[in-house]
Amino acid sequence: MQAVFGFVEQLSPWWWVALALFLGVIEMLTMTAFLLWPALAALCMALLQWLAPGIPGEIQVTLFAALAIAMTILGKRVLLRGENRAQAASPLNQRARRVVGRSGRVIEWRGRVGTVDVEGVQWEARRVQGEGPLDIGAEIEVTDIDGMVVLVRTAQ
């Protein structure tokens, strides 16, 4: 094991840059957003070794591992936060979200659930809490969605 650490200690910062480029190429081929963070950690190691040459091999490997793990965890959080914000802002792939606020008519109703027609499309529907049954043909307004079920109330 000492031979491996001795080998790492003798490497120039350009080897860390080469590792970062290699990981970056693999990341572009796989598009997983996972290898991006170890690639950035390798670039940080190249910068660190350039600023402070002669860092022992054990410390270089340990720092690289710690940086890669920390950057992966933090990077995933940042990506997921941005992804959730983008999904919340975009109705793309959320067809039901586009009908919130629209009006329609009741086609069929049984208790608190039924089928409604909103702009020519039939939706499974459920009443908003505290509302009674609906008559066939009644005007409704879509207030929210729950998966692919629209939540409705009597139109005002």
Briefly, what is this?
The protein has 156 residues and is of the alpha+beta class. The chain contains 4 helices and 5 strands, in the order ααααβββββ.
Give keywords:
alpha+beta, 4 helices, 2 domains, OB fold (Dihydrolipoamide Acetyltransferase, E2P), single chain, rod-shaped, five-stranded mixed beta barrel, 5 strands
Would you kindly provide a written description of the structure presented here, covering whatever features stand out?
Helix content is 49%, strand content 22%. With 156 residues, the protein is an alpha+beta fold. It has two domains: 2-89, no CATH class; 95-154, OB fold (Dihydrolipoamide Acetyltransferase, E2P) (Beta Barrel). Strands 1-2-3-5-4 form a five-stranded mixed β-barrel. Helix 1 (2-10) packs across helix 4, helix 2 (13-30) packs antiparallel against helix 3 (36-51) and helix 3 packs across helix 4. The longest helix is centred in the middle third of the chain and has 33 residues, at 57-89.
Task: Set out the fold topology.
Elements: H1 2-10, H2 13-30, H3 36-51, H4 57-89, E1 103-110, E2 113-118, E3 121-127, E4 139-146, E5 149-154
Parallel strand pairs: 3-5
Antiparallel strand pairs: 1-2, 1-4, 2-3, 4-5
First-residue to last-residue Cα separation = 76 Å
Order of helices and strands: HHHHEEEEE
General form: rod-shaped
Largest sheet: 5 strands, mixed, barrel
Number of strands: 5
Mean pLDDT: 84
Strand order of the largest sheet: 1-2-3-5-4
Unreliable sequence segments: none
| Number of H/I helices | 4
How helical, in percent, are the residues? Answer: 40-55%
Q: How many domain modules?
A: 2
The structural class is: alpha+beta
Radius of gyration of CA atoms, rounded to a whole number: 28 Å
Q: β content, as a range?
A: 15-25%
